[in-house]
Amino acid sequence: QVRGTHPDCSVVLHFQKREAECLERIRSESQTPAPPGQEGCPTEWDGVSCWPALPLGQSRAVACPEILNVFKKSKGLIQRNCTEWGWSPPSPPYHSTCQLETLGSNNDTEAKARHFVTMKVLYTCGYSTSLAALLLAIGIFSCFRKLHCTRNSIHIHFFTSFVLRGTAVFIKDSVLFSDESIDHCTMSTVTCKAAITFFQYSVLANFYWLLVEGLYLQTLLLLTFTCDRSYTWGYILIGWGVPMATVGVWALTRLWYDNHGCWDDYSSLYWWVIKAPILLAIFVNFLIFLNVTRMLAQKIRCPDLSKSHKQQYLRLTKSTLLLIPLFGVHYVVFALFPEHVGVDARLYFELVLGSYQGFLVALLYCFLNGEVQAEIRRNWGTWQRSMESNIFNLATQDFTA
């Protein structure tokens, strides 16, 4: 999935939090003025550190702030004195004591910016390709009546979840990053929160419709002679209903207890309201993966099973069993580490490779599906014969006239 909080934003938000704590301390101290004769320097925020109140003539030293290894680990201290004219300037200055990690030169910054631009172009192409392929696949399944069945209906819902996910990424980018003059780290508008909420819903729906694909395959193998239409509404409830309820709980929780920023800070404890259901879906899908593999081995060895049933099982199983580990493995791996670890790898997997997942799904379930190919060829042949017949009739009429 796309990570909304860039590491630079984490630094900004860290200092904003420290500033808010310091300002709150200043407000509380202002309500209880110091006794006469004990005046000194009041608590002050200098943009980096909070300096507690100090009596006149004394000094205080603080260490360099440590946030995400942005600053080098320096044993030096910054000192300030309380004089009759107030706080003295930091000595030595922050820039000399708390050196930033070496970035080399402006060329490195420009290279990093070009890297993110390149990555955005790649995932934009990926999601555009996926959207085009998915919409074409949905059109194929919807137009040909012989392809109307519960299995393909589930595929259409699965495709739709990918369409929503790609659309949500474009909406989120347009809201958060379209205007470079806006500080997206501190943006806290209803529009950006709605965009993030829609994005989280589309991601959850994506994982739960993959779970439905696994559940359907398992049901198909377990209950061969049961009408699968009776389970359709249950699948819809799992695929769209569970994500809706989860995102609703998450949105209300953020609104009441953590309503700051644009709700895209994944370091928040409330992020587990989204992460836990996704991990649950992946875990259940993994169990289904093992169980279906076991059942399929038994079914294929069964001498009473007809050849057509074997081909049907193999065709559907081949696609579903490939997708279950493909979609879940990287998410589980990254879920075990803090959000600031492996940022580049996360961005690559979730943005670049993840953007082509929809195309892969359309390819496996639709374009490489023998049933779909046969139906397209049949309709293409019918259309060609119809066109040839119309042309022959027109030529005959012209000749007889």
Automatic annotation (TrEMBL):
Family: Belongs to the G-protein coupled receptor 2 family.
Protein encoded by which gene: Vipr1_2
KW Ribosomal protein (keyword) present: no
Listed GO biological process terms: adenylate cyclase-modulating G protein-coupled receptor signaling pathway; cell surface receptor signaling pathway; positive regulation of multicellular organismal process; regulation of growth
SMART domains referenced in this protein's UniProt entry, alphabetically: HormR
Keyword Transmembrane: yes
Compartment(s) of residence: Cell membrane
Top-rank taxon: Eukaryota
GO cellular component: plasma membrane
Boundaries of every G-protein coupled receptors family 2 profile domain copy: 21-102, 119-369
A Pfam family of this chain: HRM
UniProt-recorded name of the protein: Growth hormone-releasing hormone receptor
Taxon lineage: Eukaryota, Metazoa, Chordata, Craniata, Vertebrata
Keywords carried by this UniProt record: Cell membrane, Disulfide bond, G-protein coupled receptor, Glycoprotein, Membrane, Receptor, Signal, Transducer, Transmembrane, Transmembrane helix
Organism name: Promerops cafer
Topology with respect to the bilayer: Multi-pass membrane protein
GO molecular function annotation: G protein-coupled peptide receptor activity; growth hormone-releasing hormone receptor activity; peptide hormone binding; vasoactive intestinal polypeptide receptor activity
Job description of the protein: Receptor for GRF, coupled to G proteins which activate adenylyl cyclase. Stimulates somatotroph cell growth, growth hormone gene transcription and growth hormone secretion.
Membrane-traversing stretches: 121-142, 207-226, 233-257, 269-292, 313-336, 348-368
